[in-house]
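[Q] Does anyone have a clean structure-token version of this?
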Amino acid sequence: MASTVRKPHGYGVWTSPDARPVEKDTLQCCHCNKHWFVEPGSGKTRGFCINCMGPHCGGPACVSCTPFEKQLAAWEARDKLFREMELVK
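[A] Here you go.
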């Protein structure tokens, strides 16, 4: 199989008793960590974030740059705040 992107983030193989195995490269969104299969010429709108220097899935939440690490830190801070609020009651 010829590679479809320069640096794929993953690799998937489908096997079926009725057909030959199908092999495809995958990429991972730098904003939401979603994986998708690379299908050149599929017409799906994807993008590349210049700030993160990585591909993004093109989803509505991923068009604006919010890196996954930053989102994770915000979730952890929110969880810590909720736990502290429970202690105050």
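[Q] Thanks! Anything notable?
[A] Residues 10-88 form one domain.
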